[in-house]
Specification:
Helices cover 64% and strands 11% of the residues. The chain is α/β, with parallel strands linked by helices and 543 residues long. A 10-stranded mixed sheet has the order 5-4-1-2-10-9-3-8-7-6, sandwiched between helices. It starts with a helix and ends with a strand. GO terms for molecular function: ABC-type transporter activity; ATP binding; ATP hydrolysis activity; ATPase-coupled lipid transmembrane transporter activity.
């Protein structure tokens, strides 16, 4: 039920159409059931030619009505099923965008991606079943018990009792499947994590020649996954056998009772026609619903796991966004990653609007962590972060999203064109783009590309050197034209000549910007007003 609640809760723009199609399924169940009802009614007494014409007329009406309702389901219902999965992907993506970095880094991105894909892809067959099976079953069950009760209240009561037992036992067994499905989910996610990790670094595997190590890791995780699949399938098969034995008992007992009644002349043989035809309809739906239970249990595990990751954090409070600011200040800020003894301390940090500040220090001291604290990606364990007199906690997140650009050394390019990678949806004249490429010593390289700025880069595109990627990433951040720029080792992969050209460009570009540069390169100090150093995980200002 939790998965069905999840679907209904997230229908949003699909809700009206979903309800419309669901009722089309209910009506289809009614008209489909009426065909054996008509056959049973018309064969209760002597069957004459006028009855034949009326029967053909009514059966045709109900059959054509069924075709219409099924056309509605195919046209709109299946479209919803196909669209809804992608809609959920977007909702999860938006939720992940708001998730603090400290929560994101606790989970492998491949794991999160696999869970989202499992949920999004799994919703399609579930929605199919809701329209094609569950909705029809509602009306067909109602009709079945109604017409059965008309002929024999005893038979109707017996079947209702068996149905209740079927549902109760099915629910209990399904709940027992949840931990098994959850364990399979964990093992499958672990396998996908490793597979994604090794596949994305396949060149590293080849360069190091560590085939045996990788294959061994994947083999053991695949084997664990296979054993858990066998366990789940065994439980599912036993559950299926027990429930369908119960269903078959109800069928055989009812048929036997009806034959006994017919042999005594109490009931017409037409009732047997109705009953067998109705059971055939219901059995098909029961089989499908029974199979859906397994998918629902697996889906429940996936949804719950994603909820723990995405919705465990406190919701972001949308405070008022300030229009102007003069300075940003840190006072006695401390931060410590969970599971480590390293504690980063910032007794005092101030940057005024328009200032350029440099932060020096060795790798691993906490310089990048400071930038994440500045961007509000991380929350300090204690201390005060202020924008003028406003606490970070009272700031609207849009202040950080719309005013600050963080250009990190490890940012990857997307698998789209070079132009799209640097403009990110903005309309920027090619002349301006090429002028920046020229100043960063990349123009000749772009002009030699067969498709120029339309060349695909990223995983499936052309391969860039570390220095080229670093400058492309710098261009991307610059074209965002934010008023506060954070640079994390912007020249670490450049030779001294290229670094000099980049610094000259940044000196001109940064004239009206507020800038924090994290680097161990002394040359970048030239364009900064003040300098801090991160030493022994503590930030202090130096002259």
């Amino acid at each position: 039920m939790s998965v069905l609640k999840f679907i209904y809760k997230n229908l949003d723009k699909f809700k009206i159409k979903f309800i419309f199609v669901f009722f089309a399924g209910i009506f289809d169940g009614f008209v489909t059931f009426f065909v054996p009802v008509l056959l049973a009614e018309f064969t209760k007494s002597s069957f004459i030619s006028s009855d034949f014409q009326n029967l053909i007329y009514l059966v045709s009406i109900f059959y054509l009505s069924s075709l219409f309702f099924q056309w509605v389901i195919r046209k709109w219902g299946e479209a919803i099923a196909l669209q809804f999965g992608n809609y959920i992907r977007l909702k999860y993506f938006k939720a992940l965008e708001k998730l603090p970095i400290k929560d994101l880094i606790n989970h492998h991105s491949g794991y999160i991606l696999s869970m989202i894909n499992k949920v999004s892809d799994g919703l399609e067959p579930i929605i199919f079943d809701i329209f094609w099976t569950f909705s029809k079953s509602i009306s067909q069950m109602i009709m079945f018990f109604y017409f059965t009760a008309k002929e024999s209240v005893f038979i109707a009561v017996v079947n209702i009792v068996i149905l209740i037992i079927f549902i109760v036992v099915g629910t209990i067994l399904s709940r027992k499947m949840v931990p098994i499905a959850n364990e399979l989910n964990k093992k499958r996610a672990s396998l996908l994590e490793s597979y994604t990790d090794f596949m994305s670094n396949i060149l590293t595997v080849k360069r190091l020649g560590i085939y045996s190590f990788v294959e061994d890791k994947l083999f053991h995780k695949t084997n664990d996954n296979y054993n858990q699949i066998k366990k789940l399938q065994s439980f599912h098969a036993n559950r299926w056998f027990f429930l369908h034995t119960l269903f078959s008992f109800a069928f055989l007992a009812t048929v036997g009772f009806l034959l006994f009644q017919i042999s005594k002349g109490i009931l017409s043989s037409s009732v047997l026609i109705l009953f067998i035809a109705a059971y055939a309809l219901i059995r098909g739906n029961v089989n499908r619903i029974s199979e859906s239970f397994k998918l629902l249990m697996e889906m429940k595990a996936y949804v719950n796991n994603l909820d723990k990751i995405i919705f465990s954090s406190k919701p972001v409070v949308e405070n008022k966004e300030i229009k102007k600011w003069k300075e940003i200040k840190f006072n006695n800020v401390y931060f410590q990653y969970t599971g480590t003894e390293k504690k980063i301390s910032i007794s005092e940090f101030i940057i005024k609007k328009g200032e350029k500040v440099c932060i020096m220090g060795k790798s691993g001291e906490g310089k990048t962590t400071f930038l994440n604290l500045f961007m509000n990606f991380l929350k300090p364990d204690k201390g005060e972060r202020l924008i003028d007199t406003w606490s970070y906690g009272k700031m609207n997140e849009k202040f950080f999203q719309n005013r600050i650009a963080m250009i990190s050394q490890d940012t990857e390019l997307f698998n789209i064109s070079l132009r799209e990678n640097i403009t990110l949806g903005q309309k920027i004249e090619e002349k301006i783009i090429l002028d920046i490429f020229s100043k960063l010593d990349l123009l000749a390289w772009v002009q030699n590309l067969e498709k120029g700025l339309e060349t695909i880069v990223g995983e499936k595109g052309i391969k860039l050197s570390a220095g080229q990627k670093q400058r492309i990433n710098l261009i991307r951040g610059i074209l965002l034209n934010r008023e506060i720029i954070l640079l994390d080792e912007p020249t670490s992969h450049l030779d001294f000549v290229t670094e000099g050209k980049v610094i000259d460009f940044l000196r001109d570009y940064f004239s009206d910007k507020t800038v924090i540069i994290v680097s161990h390169r002394e040359a970048l100090k030239e364009i900064c007003d003040r300098c801090y150093v991160m030493k022994d995980h503590s930030l202090v200002e130096i002259s």
